Amino acid sequence: MPEGDTVWRLAQRLRDALTGGPLTRCDLRVPRLATVDLTGRGVLDVLPRGKHLLTRFEGGLTLHSHLRMDGAWQIYAPAERWRGGPAHQIRAVLGTADHTAVGYRLPVLDLLRTAEESRVVGHLGPDLLGPGWDPAEALRRLLATPERPLGEALLDQRNLAGIGNVYKCELCFLLHASPWLPMGALPRPERVPTLAKKLLEANKRRPARITTPSARPDRRLWVYGRAGRPCLRCGTGIRTADQDPTAEERVTYWCPTCQPDPRGTRPAGRPEGPPHPN
């Protein structure tokens, strides 16, 4: 699933492609929006909100989309062949004289009044890459349920918006904490929003995410995707386990040596296995 830095970068690309001229084509291929035609309206802005995208149009309308696991927006030149997937996977087409944005496999696509955007993003916590970032409020929300495991608290977009499974694993490693450690037992919890902000800011303009000092492709991340491989810090084999048994796509990676769990709440984990996609 794309995380806050990826969505921020996508919003910049969509903004550059679609603003500056009226739409010459609009095709929203979901039943409830099938009769909507935004042709002739200009795109005013494309805003990232955590993992959500808000495309604002003239006339006070906003197209809300969320990529979740498989969705994608692709941008094409007028004569360029669309390559994002078969035609039946297209959910939205927004075209200007210069570019066409095509939304593939979008699981969330809604049209609403711009004044009512809070209906779809109002539940989010402070946005790590947003203009209203508030680390104190993010910390307050994280600590509101002190018994909750650190990893689960990080993934909850109501606490702070923009963290997905990759950053969850990397943040827990950098905090020297087990993802299963209760949030209230974490030493110096104020480090969490500060470090999360630092990581996403550092990566929002990079095509390849990096959380380590190394630029080598096989050493860009501390633990994520490194199941069974040696920890880059201590050499212990990286383990995996499902943080939430109902969400297998969010497999957790951690180093049992660098991330001690004094309360013994973590599972034994799997020492080997292929990296899980995210």
UniProtKB/TrEMBL annotation:
Membrane in keyword set: no
Matches recorded under PANTHER family: ENDONUCLEASE 8 (PTHR42697:SF1)
GO molecular function: class I DNA-(apurinic or apyrimidinic site) endonuclease activity; damaged DNA binding; oxidized pyrimidine nucleobase lesion DNA N-glycosylase activity; zinc ion binding
DNA repair listed as a keyword: yes
Annotated EC: 4.2.99.18
Classification via Pfam families: Fapy_DNA_glyco
Leading EC class: lyase
Gene3D superfamilies for the chain: 1.10.8.50, MutM-like, N-terminal
Coiled-coil segments on the chain, per record: none
Catalytic activity: 2'-deoxyribonucleotide-(2'-deoxyribose 5'-phosphate)-2'-deoxyribonucleotide-DNA = a 3'-end 2'-deoxyribonucleotide-(2,3-dehydro-2,3-deoxyribose 5'-phosphate)-DNA + a 5'-end 5'-phospho-2'-deoxyribonucleoside-DNA + H(+)
Family membership noted in the UniProt record: Belongs to the FPG family.
Name of the protein described by the UniProt record: DNA-(apurinic or apyrimidinic site) lyase
GO biological process, one term: base-excision repair
First and last residue of the signal peptide: none
Domain Formamidopyrimidine-DNA glycosylase catalytic: 2-103
Domain FPG-type: 222-260
